[in-house]
Write a structure and sequence with these properties.
Elements: E1 9-13, E2 19-23, H1 34-40, E3 45-49, H2 65-78, E4 84-89, H3 91-102, E5 107-113, H4 125-132, H5 142-149, H6 156-163, E6 166-169, E7 172-175, H7 179-190, E8 204-209, H8 217-226, E9 230-235, H9 242-245, H10 247-258
Parallel strand pairs: 2-3, 2-4, 4-5, 5-8, 8-9
Antiparallel strand pairs: 1-3, 6-7
Helix pairs in contact: 1-10, 2-3, 5-6
InterPro entries: AB_hydrolase_1, AB_hydrolase_fold
Pfam families: Abhydrolase_1
Keywords: Hydrolase
Length: about 260
């Protein structure tokens, strides 16, 4: 991380190859992409960043998609990258889409993983309840934290994803992400900003999981409206966390599209 730069990022892969920026989903971080980075690092220079209020990036009270677009473009400016390709999952996919729709001259190609430019119902109420009620001051171990979360989140994989953000500093436990800001921003994060008929003239790939319900027919119509030059690819035997569940076919789809 460069001290004067707001966002934390990892500059990975081959510096002589085309640039690909990676953006994680809600509650995630750049660490989530490490398996994909290993599969793509010989073909791209990869800028793998922590979005605001996540990972090692600073905490801000304000949290919105336009602000995250500004953060991304400021990072690209700092790295003297005029155009880049973008890959975003879920919330990060919305950041990538909004960047392409509002700053198309900065985006070479766009890859969006299991999300669309539409509003979604809040699927995170039980997760937030589990995180808010975590007894951090009395917590004795990660196993105890997992046991607490199991009362709110049934899927073990999702609990482990969340618990990657649980840190112990001295004798105190805390969250790496800015929980309060995320709670306050949820109405904005489940929505998608009004783009006033903007379209992205470049090529876009939308990858969705066979077992996920995030990209339905309504979502596809919105994708077609905003991204007229889009392709779609389904990853078999994968849900919303498709890049983690099926990394090899996911990485292959990304690489073949970006070539």
């Amino acid at each position: 991380m460069i001290d004067t730069l707001p966002l934390y990022f990892r500059d990975q892969g081959d510096p002589q190859k085309p640039v690909l920026c990676l953006m994680h989903g809600l509650f995630g971080s750049s660490s989530n992409w490490m398996g994909i980075v290993r599969l793509l690092q010989d073909q791209f220079r990869i800028i793998n960043l922590d979005l605001r209020n996540h990972g090692r990036s600073p905490h801000y009270r304000e949290m919105s998609y336009p602000l995250m677009v500004d953060d991304l473009l400021a990072l690209c400016d700092h790295l003297e990258l005029q155009t880049v390709s973008l890959l975003g999952h879920s919330m990060g996919g919305k950041v990538a889409m909004l960047t392409a729709l509002t700053n198309p001259e900065r985006v070479e190609k766009l890859v969006v993983a299991d999300i669309a430019p539409v509003a979604y119902a809040n699927r995170f109420a039980s997760i937030f309840k589990g995180l808010q009620t975590m007894p951090l001051e009395q917590l004795e171990s990660r196993d105890a934290a997992d046991l607490h979360l199991s009362g709110y989140v049934a899927e073990p994989g999702v609990r482990q994803y969340l618990l990657q953000n649980l840190l112990k500093q001295g004798e105190r436990w805390g969250w790496r992400f800015n929980l309060q800001s995320l709670i306050e921003a949820m109405p904005l994060l489940t929505d998608f900003p009004e783009v006033a008929g903007n379209t992205f003239p470049g090529d876009a790939l939308f990858i969705h999981g066979e077992l996920s319900d995030y990209v339905n027919q309504q979502a596809i119509r919105s994708i077609d409206d905003c991204f007229p030059h889009n392709r779609r690819r389904m990853i078999h035997a994968a849900g919303h966390w498709l890049y983690a569940e099926q990394p090899a076919p996911f990485a292959q789809a990304v690489a073949s599209f970006l070539k």
